[in-house]
Specification:
Shape: globular
Structural class: mainly alpha
Distance between the termini: 7 Å
Oligomer: single chain
Number of helices: 6
Length: 145
Amino acid sequence: NIVSIVNIENFSMFNQRFLKGMERIEKFQRRCDRLNELYINKEYNYLKKMLKEDFDINIKKKNYLNICQEKYKIDINFYESFVYKIKYSILKKKIFKNYKKLKSTNRTDYFKLLEYFQSDIDKYEKRIKDTLNIFINNFYSFHTF
């Protein structure tokens, strides 16, 4: 029983988050999947067009970085709704704090780290998306009454 797992005091918050998650899946999942498919296939012109038509995002300077930043904002907005925001935001702050610290104190290691991830970034990004999509595709089963 889901009430015993999340505790009766937290059930209302869990239920609200679940319903919001269901709404996001219905509203955004197909568009987010298509957005990521265009990105993976390096179809940046179509990606820019989709950002404009489906998300009302107009990119003034059509370059790779600007297109990717907007795509990532949409991804984060979609997937972030399925995680516990307080813990996620704390983790995100720690990561960025350490990233800035490394960049300012040891630029050599900073660039080594960037180089390391850059070589396989597409592979890691695909793994993250696949893992998140397994969760999203099974989201309905988390809420049983």
